[in-house]
């Protein structure tokens, strides 16, 4: 059982391909690392895998079937900047439960406190917000988690805490994780396999 | 002189922070406008007796705005006219706001709908504004109904433009994409994510539309295409007084015109202060 991107080509502008013939495969239960230069198109690939972009060539599939365009997407993407991932006019409890009612287990393992629920997003720290973003993305129907530099802006201790929580949950629920990060140490520590972006992307750099 | 005024201003507002000051100004200005509307409701023809014994009197203590050629008190007439103007302005702005919300939501529904809205805005803007109001007003047979619909159906364009731009910007936000990925429908996203951001804009836009609507109503009426001559509108008062201006009866035009200006500026003041209150920098919601 796997999420596959096959022969994906994409550019924001015509004649300027950012992804050229990229193929990537993520199995359930796997933790796959993706390392690459800044600006090389990793986030773009993540967005395509999670169905945020439509005008690409190639194919994204789960177990050979196209990912449904409507309804809950089993592929959930979490970004680097949690403050952009939440509607500033919503209270935290509404943000958390937008997709599904997030179970108490997940709240406990992320250390999300009940008294944060009635706050506005700007009343939480980046690390606290990121826990909400992750918990929200880990609804019961999530099968694949794409983590695009989710701990880049956090200190080392918080980073380790958050990854421990995520790894516990994905192991228990057999979720596949794509870990995008600049930090080789982190990737080496938590990933089963590592892919180098320049090896899978055939864009020529001059 | 002016420093004295500033000092008075300072001592008057001493001890108030910016927010309280803003609220105070909002309260006072709203009260002024409300007072005009309410008092105009109590003015009927009996409170405007024709008295040829006291016609064309220049301003005095008894008649602060003077009297007209039928001996009617100009202050009373002006109040009545302003009340009517504000009510028409309110109706027109409200209808415009509703149109804006509908068109805004429509334009957030999809590309084709958005192009349609853009086309409608451009079409409306391609005809000179005053001319369009006059055309609509005449087409609907003139009168209060014609003017209100004419003014209301032409003032939604600028606000709709702002709202469209805002929607475009909002739709690129990550949390909108995330919402879609969490299985939410377009309509759900439009009402739950996008609309709450637009409401302050629309509220402010509606209030700032007021002065435009009032001035347009007055000018269309002044030009003779709006309210009928027996209606107590400011536009009517002004166009009548033009005939008497050469006779030296300056107060017939001066005070009603000045009052209209003050009402218009009051709305601007309200809009400005409301804008300060809703400034996203100091509002956490
Ligand atoms: N919305 C957009 N419109 C146009 N160009 C874009 C857009 N988003 C990204 N790009 C461009 O596409 C290229 C790839 O960007 P992307 O964000 O995918 O890189 P990345 O590998 O994630 O980089 P980083 O490691 O710095 O996050 C960059 O050159 C960027 O300027
Ligand atoms: Mg990136």
Unreliable stretches of chain A: none
Radius of gyration over C-alpha positions of chain A, nearest whole angstrom: 17 Å
Proportion of β residues of chain A?
15-25%
**What percent of residues of chain B adopt helix (DSSP H or I)?**
over 70%
Number of strands of chain A: 9
Tell me the name of the CATH homologous superfamily of chain B.
MetI-like
The CATH architecture classification of chain B is Orthogonal Bundle
CATH architecture group name of the domain at 27-40 and 68-194 in chain A: 3-Layer(aba) Sandwich
Give the largest interface: A-B, 27 and 16 residues
What fraction strand of chain B? under 5%
Helix count of chain B, per DSSP?
Answer: 11
CATH class of the domain at 27-40 and 68-194 in chain A: Alpha Beta
Q: Total helix count of chain A?
A: 7
Order of helices and strands of chain B: HHHHHHHHHHH
Strand order of the largest sheet of chain A: 6-7-8-3-9
Oligomer: heterodimer
Provide the structure class of chain B: mainly alpha
Name of the CATH first level of chain B: Mainly Alpha
**Averaged pLDDT of chain A:** 92
The succession of helices and strands of chain A, N to C, reads EEEHEEEHHHEHEHEH
Do you know the CATH topology of chain B?
A: MetI-like fold
Per-chain topology:
The complex is a heterodimer of chains A (about 210) and B (about 280).
Chain A: E1 2-10, E2 19-27, E3 31-35, H1 42-49, E4 57-62, E5 65-66, E6 75-78, H2 92-96, H3 104-110, H4 126-137, E7 144-148, H5 156-173, E8 176-180, H6 184-190, E9 193-196, H7 197-200
Parallel strand pairs in A: 3-8, 3-9, 6-7, 7-8
Antiparallel strand pairs in A: 1-2, 1-4, 4-5
Chain B: H1 2-13, H2 18-41, H3 74-109, H4 111-126, H5 129-139, H6 143-152, H7 156-171, H8 174-181, H9 186-222, H10 234-245, H11 251-277
Helix pairs in contact in B: 2-3, 2-11, 3-4, 3-6, 3-7, 3-9, 3-11, 4-7, 5-6, 6-9, 7-9, 9-10, 9-11, 10-11
The structure holds adenosine-5'-triphosphate (ATP) and magnesium ion.
Magnesium ion binds near residues 42, 43, 148 and 149 of chain A.
């Amino acid at each position: 059982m796997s999420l596959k991107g096959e022969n994906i080509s994409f550019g924001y502008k015509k004649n300027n391909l950012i992804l050229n013939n990229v193929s990537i495969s993520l199995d359930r239960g796997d933790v796959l690392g993706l390392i690459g230069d800044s600006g090389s198109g990793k986030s773009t690939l993540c967005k395509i895998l999670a169905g945020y972009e439509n005008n690409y060539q190639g194919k994204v599939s789960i177990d050979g079937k196209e990912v449904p365009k409507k309804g809950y997407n089993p592929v959930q993407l979490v970004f680097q900047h949690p403050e952009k991932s939440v509607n500033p006019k919503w209270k935290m409890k509404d943000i958390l439960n937008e997709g599904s009612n997030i179970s108490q287990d997940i709240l406990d393992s992320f250390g999300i406190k009940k008294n944060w629920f009635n706050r506005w997003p700007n009343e939480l720290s980046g690390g606290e917000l990121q826990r909400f973003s992750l918990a929200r993305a880990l609804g019961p129907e999530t099968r694949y988690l794409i983590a695009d530099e989710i701990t880049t802006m956090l200190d080392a201790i918080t980073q380790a805490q958050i990854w421990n929580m995520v790894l516990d949950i994905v192991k228990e629920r057999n979720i596949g994780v794509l870990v995008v990060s600049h930090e080789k140490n982190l990737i080496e520590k938590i990933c089963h396999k590592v892919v180098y972006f320049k090896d899978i992307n055939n864009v020529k750099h001059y | 002189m002016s420093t004295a005024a500033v000092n008075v201003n300072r001592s008057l507002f001493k001890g108030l922070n910016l927010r309280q000051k803003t609220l105070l100004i909002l309260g006072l200005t709203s009260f002024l406008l409300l007072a005009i509307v309410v008092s105009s409701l109590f003015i009927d023809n009996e409170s405007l007796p024709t008295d040829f014994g006291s016609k064309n009197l220049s301003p005095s203590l008894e008649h602060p705005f003077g009297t007209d050629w039928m001996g009617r008190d100009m202050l009373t007439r002006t109040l009545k006219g302003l009340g009517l103007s504000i009510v028409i302005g309110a109706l027109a702005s409200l209808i415009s706001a509703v149109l804006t919300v509908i068109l805004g939501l429509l334009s957030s529904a999809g590309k084709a709908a958005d192009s349609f809205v853009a086309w409608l805005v451009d079409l409306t803007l391609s005809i000179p504004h005053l001319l369009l109001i006059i055309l609509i007003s005449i087409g609907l047979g003139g009168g209060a109904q014609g003017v209100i619909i004419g003014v209301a159906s032409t003032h939604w364009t600028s606000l709709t433009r702002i709202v469209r731009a805002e929607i475009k910007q909002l739709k690129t936000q990550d949390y909108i994409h995330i919402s879609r990925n969490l299985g939410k429908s377009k309509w759900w996203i439009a009402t739950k994510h996008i609309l709450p951001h637009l409401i302050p804009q629309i509220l402010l836009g509606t209030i700032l539309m007021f002065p435009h609507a009032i001035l347009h109503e007055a000018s269309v009426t002044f030009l003779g295409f709006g309210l009928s001559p027996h209606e107590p509108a400011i536009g009517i008062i002004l166009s009548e007084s033009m005939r008497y201006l050469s006779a030296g009866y300056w107060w017939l035009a001066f005070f009603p015109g000045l009052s209209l200006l003050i009402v218009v500026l009051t709305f601007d003041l309200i809009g400005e202060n409301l804008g300060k209150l809703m400034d996203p920098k100091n509002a956490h919601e």
